[in-house]
Structures are given as C-alpha cells and as structure tokens.
Design a protein that fits this description.
Blueprint lengths: L8 H13 L3 H9 L5 H24 L6 H5 L6 E4 L2 E4 L4 H4 L2
Antiparallel strand pairs: 1-2
C-alpha cells in the first residue's frame, strides 16, 4: 500500500513526469493526444514504443540476406552514362527486349 501525502494526485504527478521527461518526441506527442491519459495508459504506450523500436532495430539483421536482390536474382544492374546534364540508359527497355 502506498503511504504518500499526495493521495490520489500521485498517479497524475508520476504520469506528468513521464510525459515531460520522455526524450522521444513522437511518443510524447502520442501521449499528449490521448484523451483522459492515465498512468496505466502512459506506461502501456511507452512500453509499446520501446518494443516496436527494438523490433525495428532488429530488422536489418533478420533481413540482411535479401539486401542485394539483383545479385540473388541474376538481374543485371542498369548502367547509366552521364553526358552533360542528361542521363542516357544503356539498358534496353522491356518493350525493346521483347522485339
């Protein structure tokens, strides 16, 4: 049991400290947009943001094998010659190749 002289106000004070102290602007904005933000909602939103951030950070290591699609599929990369300020492609379009 809590033994605090702030009583019911303590949850809102803790909530406000989290909202004002959070470093991630996007998470802070989502907290401020929330109607009737409680301490429990604040904690849940912050935990979800942390979980999604760690999942996003782990994506490159999971999908690193698909980084070079051209090499794996055998497709030729498109070569481009720069003449002046115009670009000329040396690769035929699919329409030209089918003729």
């Amino acid at each position: 049991m809590k033994n605090c002289s702030f009583g019911d106000l303590s949850d809102s004070l803790v909530r406000d400290q989290i909202v004002t102290g959070i470093l991630n602007d996007k998470v802070r904005e989502s907290l401020l947009r929330e109607n009737e933000l409680t301490l429990e909602k604040t904690i849940n939103i912050c935990r979800a943001a942390e979980a999604s951030k760690s999942q996003v950070e782990s994506l490159p290591s999971c999908y690193g094998a698909t980084a070079n699609v051209n090499q794996a599929s055998g497709a030729r990369p498109k070569t481009v010659a720069h003449v002046g300020k115009q670009q000329y492609s040396h690769r035929k379009s699919q329409r030209e190749e089918s003729r």
